[in-house]
Structure formats: C-alpha cells, structure tokens
Amino acid sequence: MMANATAAPVDLGSPSTGFITLSAALVFLMMPGLGLFYSGLSRYNNALSLIMLCMMAMAVVTLQFFLFGFSLAFSETGGPFIGDFYNGALNTLGSHALVNTAPQIPSIAFMLYQMQFATIAAALIFGSVPERTRFLPAMVFVFIWTTLVYDIVAYWSWADHGWIRNFACIPMLRGDSSVTPCLEGGYDYAGGGPVHIASGFSGLAYCLLIGKRKHIHVEHHSVVNVFLGTGLLWTGWFAFNGGSAGAANTRAAMAGVVTTISAAAGAITWVGFDYIFTKKMSALGFCSGALAGLVAITPGAGFVAPWAAIIFGFAGGIFCNVWCRLKRRFSFDDSFDAWSVHGTGGFLGSILTGIFAQKWVGELDGTVLKGGWIEWHWMQMVYQLVGSIVIAVWSFVVSLVILFVINRIPGLHLRQTESDEVIGGDFVEMGEVGYMLVISEPGAEESSSPNTIGTLNDGRRVSSISLNHITAAKQKNGHAHGHAHGHGHNNPAFITGDRTLEMRRM
C-alpha cells in the first residue's frame, strides 16, 4: 500500500509537475547525446558499441533507481550518511511530496527527474575507458556503483538529512531522522558532486585499473557526431540545471541563463587557448570547452549571478584544458576526458560556487542562503572544499574496490583481449557494426574492392565488400588480425556479420 496514501493531495495538473516531467525528458536526451559524443571521438570500429554502452547503463540504472536507488538517495527518514528503503518501488508512486527536498511537486515526478541524473552519471564513467571495456562486467559495475557511490553521494549532497547539506549541524543529527535539519552546509544545485566529481573520479579509478589502450589514436572517426552530441547535451543541460529548482519559477529561469552563458564562455575560452598553440579554431575544442563550462556551472547554477557565469566558463575552459594536457605526463589513459573534464571541472565548479554564491539568487524562490565568500560567508568555502574532497576520495576508493572484486570473478574480467581490441567493440561485444566500408590504397587491384562507392582526396577508394571475398583472402593469406594502424605482414580484416570492414595497405 502506498505510504501516506490517505494524506496525499490530489494533483489536478500543476505547472510545476508538467515542467519537471518535461525536464526529465530533456535530461534523458543527454544520454544519446553523450553516446554520440563518445562515439564520434572513437575509432570507427567502436562507434556503435559506445552508444550501446551508454544506453545499456541507462537501462540498468533506471531499474535500480526505481526499485530502491531513489529511496537510498532521497528518503527523508534516513540518517546523515544514507537513506532507507521507505520510498522504494511502490512507495515512490504517489502525489505526496518530499517536504524538505521537493515540496512543490509529487514524489513520482521528482523520482522520474532524478532518475535521469543517476543514469547520466553512470554513463559518464565510460569516457575514461572506451575501446577496451567489456559490456557484461561494465553493467555489473554500473549497478553496484550506483548503489554504493552515486546513491550515497547524492544523499549526502541533496537529502534533507545528508551530512554535506547539513554540515553546520552534523552533531545535531546523530542518525536521528526525527531531528529537524538545519539545511546549512555545502551548495550543490544540480550535481557537481554526485554527477561530475563522482563519475570523474570513478572513471579515473577504472582507467588506472584497466590500463591503457593498446592502440591509442589521435584521430576521431566523426567530429560531426561529436558536435551533434554536444548540441544534445547543451540542450538537455537547460533542464538538467533549470529543473533542479524543483518547480517552474524564476530561479529555474536564472539557472538556465547562467548555464548557457557559462557554456558559451567555456567554448570560446577553450578555442582561444588552443589557438595560441595551433593557430587553428578547432571544432573539437569548441565542444570540449562548452562541456567544461557546463560542468563547472552545474553546482552553482541556482546560486550565482549571470555575470559570475562568465567566470565559471572561463575558468572551466582553462582549468580542464590544462588537465587534458597534463594527463599525458602522468601516463594514464583517461581516453575521452571523463576525469579531466567532469572530475576536475566539477571540483572547480564547487569551489567557485563557494566564492560567488549570492543570497538574492536563492531568494528568487524563497530559499534563504548565507551566500558565499563575496558576501563575507567565509565558512562556505570550507563546506565546499571538504564536501568535494570527501566525494572525490569516496568515489575513487569505492570504485577501485568494486572493480578489483569484479575483475577477479571468473567470466567478468573487465578488459577485452588485445585481439578483440583491434577488431573493435562493435563486432566483439555486439556482433554488429556502425560502418561497413573498405579503404584501398591508390593502385590497389580493382578486384579487391568490387563495390566502389567513392574516392578520397588522397586517391584511396572507399568500398563495400562481401564476406565471401574476405573469407577467400583469409584462406590465401592466413588468419591474422594485424595491428590497428596496419603494421605487420597481414592486412587486418574486421568481420561485420554478412559484411566486412577491411583496411588495405600497400
């Protein structure tokens, strides 16, 4: 029976309920956006599998969050460390509201909205370990990670009894849910800690444990897909930050304004910073800078003024760009910068929120704040710094332990074999591919590429080719995978169901 069913109000169609439901749908669009972003950065033979990896993570976390994750992260009857199961499964489905967390909307709408945050946080991790991750252990990891990392960190940051949200009165809570929380502690409007710091530092743990790719590449198979993914992410971020107001109000609009300003500032900053070194205006740099600005503003979106958003975007663009460069010196393969952008950018954004938070922004929806450093509330910096450090350490250590244990279970080794990595995740993990092409060097015999569909500027032919042709070639030359960049005596051939992708070299 649904909790508080007799006292539940009847929602006849409030504007805020519609706003949050629509926001949930827009945040959901960030998932295919992230998949396209990662897909575009990858090699052609991992393009489809990275989208699948993101969407599979979404499906796994959706079920976990409905069954018990939402209750662990947001129940109002838990202690300072973790929630309970009071709002799990059917107890979530009602028109009653969470009084201290989202009082203006029914819990069912709030659960739907927060579910999208949990799914995107889990998928972000795979930006640290693309092109070498096995699906099955990755999904086992995602389920456990959401339970032991995301749900706990979200509770600390957002639940009415969470210790980061109530930093100033932790001794008063003492694990007693009947104590009225003071709600004076760290500021995190939309997920700088639970989403970005947690996923970024978990991604760092993942890439350190699983190791580098065997065939690291600098080219990206489709920057067009990267741009399309960035557009979907930017669009969804309006709802990601704006919807965190929990109602259709002026503070939600303010969050949307500072979000797009910070993204624009980040994009321009990253492009400009790269231009100093390359004298080129990079599309990839624009996309990376926009994401850096979006990540940085996330914790402060409902706390800072529009002018401050320019500082967030500028600082995020420079800070994340520098870390993307420095990671090479530390010799680890954070392949698509989940840690370098999301982990470091989320941490920076949390600190900047402690500096630039202002009382009047909170008052837009009646929230009472003490402000940040610029309003002489010095302790806010302590709350932000301690909260961010604890989230980073917890996420890294717990993820490392989870991954270590999973990797020791027979059949759940985390990493693909070297030969599988050469073939690519599309075919190895899925038996399908995103592309079915052959590229032949100038002068190669026409019979090896019977279905020419175009010619590149350098003279190489782009063709489709049948499985029968490749099978015959393998029987003649011997079955060998070769290397990712064509070194060795045999040309690598990648079987794609009834088609084959082959890179032929002179």
Helix content: 55-70%
Arithmetic mean of pLDDT = 86
Order the strands across the largest sheet as they lie in space.
2-3-1-5-4
The main sheet comes to: 5 strands, mixed
Alpha-beta content class: mainly alpha
Radius of gyration: 24 Å
What is the number of strand segments? 5
Q: Uncertain segments of ≥5 residues (pLDDT<50)?
A: 1-6, 447-451, 464-506
- Number of helical elements: 17
End-to-end Cα distance: 71 Å
Write down the secondary-structure element order. HHHHHHHHHHHHHHHHEEEHEE
Please state the overall shape, judged from the principal axes of the Cα atoms.
globular
How much strand? under 5%
Short description:
The protein is mainly alpha-helical and 506 residues long. The protein is 55% helix and 4% strand.
How are the elements arranged and paired?
Blueprint lengths: L14 H14 L1 H12 L5 H28 L32 H18 L10 H24 L11 H4 L18 H19 L12 H20 L7 H29 L4 H15 L8 H21 L11 H19 L2 H4 L16 H30 L9 H6 L1 H6 L7 E3 L10 E5 L5 E4 L2 H11 L15 E4 L2 E5 L3
Parallel strand pairs: 1-5
Antiparallel strand pairs: 1-3, 2-3, 4-5
Helix pairs in contact: 1-4, 1-8, 2-3, 2-8, 3-4, 3-5, 4-5, 4-7, 5-7, 5-14, 7-12, 7-14, 8-9, 8-10, 9-10, 9-11, 10-11, 10-12, 11-12, 12-14
